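Recap for those who missed Tuesday's class. We walked through two folding examples back to back. For each one, the amino acid string is listed first and its predicted structure tokens come directly after. Nothing is annotated here on purpose, so try labeling regions yourself before you check the end of the notes.
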Amino acid sequence: MSQLTAAIALFALAALCYAALCAVSPVGSCRRCGGFGFKVRQNRRGRIVRGRECRRCHGRGQRLRTGRHLYNVATRLHRDGTR
């Protein structure tokens, strides 16, 4: 039983740390473009040039974290339900 309680405590600590991360920094860098906002590519001479705008982040280079998205949905649901 002590292993089970230790696992639950570890999971709760990890969830608490992730919630704090989402509160402090609600956005992270886009995984597809690496935070640049565009695809980095090479031209014929081998120089690195700016490519097309990233479709996932629409050129912003940032994405909303999953935890923050869930918090926003819950807040919106509560706000709309208590009007």
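Example two. Treat it independently of the first, because the proteins are unrelated.
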Amino acid sequence: MQNQATPQPVKILAILVARPDKADDLAALLGTMVGASRAEPGNLRYDLWRDRADPGRFVLDELYVDETSVAAHRATAHFQHYLSRIGDLADRSVMTLDPREVA
């Protein structure tokens, strides 16, 4: 019998900075992602944060069961809609993280 690797959770942090005069549109788009993403079977966390010092800067804090769940998220209609609009609304920096010492 082959030894199968245990699936590892995947953390994604996305930092989004609104383009000039686009903060409200960005907030609205990101708001549509929360409920739909949280409802996905492999999603463990999907939190939206807004920077106190810069109300045009947002952070998405996402956690998925495994890489398969991330792929499923990226294939959803709501994520595809987000991708189609995000470039016009914000500069985006995304980190995909593997666990090291996580409680």
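Answers for example two:
The radius of gyration is 15 Å.
The chain has one domain: 10-97.
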